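tool=predict chain=A
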Amino acid sequence: MESLDLRVLTDALAWRRAGHPVTLVTVVETWGSAPRPPGALLAVRGDGRVSGSVSGGCVEDDLIARIGAGERTDRPAMIAYGVSRAEAARFGLPCGGTLRLVQEPVVATAWLEEVLRRTASHGVVARTLMLASGQVELAEAQRGAAMQFDGLALTTVFGPRWRLLLIGAGQLSRAVAAIAQMLDFEVLVCDPRDEYSATLAMDGVRHLPGMPDDVVRELVPDMHTAIVALTHDPKLDDMALLEALQSDAFYVGALGSARNQLARKQRLAEHFDLDAQALGRLHGPVGLRIGAKTPAEIAVSVMAQIVEVKNARPLAAAADGAMAAMHA
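tool=predict ok
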């Protein structure tokens, strides 16, 4: 349920509307150290142009060659790579990795339009493909639902793009916004102070007018939304955080020292009756402890922590796993 998947679907829809034949390829099973996980998508245009990925590149080259040679099927079909060690080496699959893929021609575009429409409204959609007929059915799904494949039907889940709301438009916000965009977050900024909001004119960053607490409330943050307060002004930050901590946002953070964070939590508890559970959701001082000093370094720490929470995988555990793999 990554935003990359939505980009693949967007490209596939645009290509079909332009009259190009399009083949959609989905990873359905992996063994060993396969480069891409189940659910990863690739769209291949008739002339060989691609969007997305199902491997490190060698499998894509073979798929493009097959499709370019006219090996398109009228119905979905299974493809396997790396079944033998020799084939795994040929296609660059590490450690004997194996991929099983579902290849399908994109004929009708109504389901593409509907998936993109629903996810743009921050919905989560399950798409079921019947391999025997090519029939597609859409249904509502829950965030975190996994891909399912039983050999007859393939159900993939598409969710909305991750988004980040920044309260404050200073130099640090520019750095955070730049890194967030590289991580494919939709970036929104709210700062009612004219002298600041005019400074954050960045392509792809949307400015939301109004007071921060009103903006947070109107945004209706969901579990794909992160909110970070960066103004250093309690009149702006605290009211926005009050709304954010009572929302479904998966991450809420605030700039400031440990002493300032303690004072902020006391204000929110005493004046706004915010309970301990809500206050416990606040990441402050915001970001991972990496000794950051410059705006760029602080932005790295902020976005690293947001990604950590998004992926629900502590970085220390990930590092331990990487070290174990290196010495295996």
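The domain at 163-311 is CATH 3.40.50.720 (Rossmann fold). The chain has two domains: 3-158, 163-311.
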